[in-house]
Design goal:
The protein contains three helices and no strands. By secondary structure, it is mainly alpha-helical. It has one domain.
Length: 79
């Protein structure tokens, strides 16, 4: 039974590694496009590239939360 658990853990580790190999190039292209747009608009990048593994992507979400993307309050119209 211990061998089966060990084999399952190995399979999960290898599947996560394979997923990183397949998804990271696409996510890096998307992140580069987002960075380009953000540099043009606000002179600040969102993602630090290149990603080396999937955990780096989730670590950058706090950067997105700190960006102030809301518009400033408008003055009331005077007639």
């Amino acid at each position: 039974m211990a061998e089966l658990k060990q084999e399952i853990e190995w399979l999960h580790a290898k599947s996560a590694e394979l997923l990183d190999y397949l998804v990271l190039p696409v996510l890096q292209l998307a992140a580069a496009a987002v960075n380009f747009g953000m540099v043009l608009v606000s002179s600040r990048q969102v993602f630090s590239l290149p990603f080396k593994d999937g955990s780096e992507i989730t670590q950058t979400w706090h950067i997105l939360q700190t960006l102030h993307m809301h518009t400033p309050p408008r003055k009331p119209a005077t007639l």
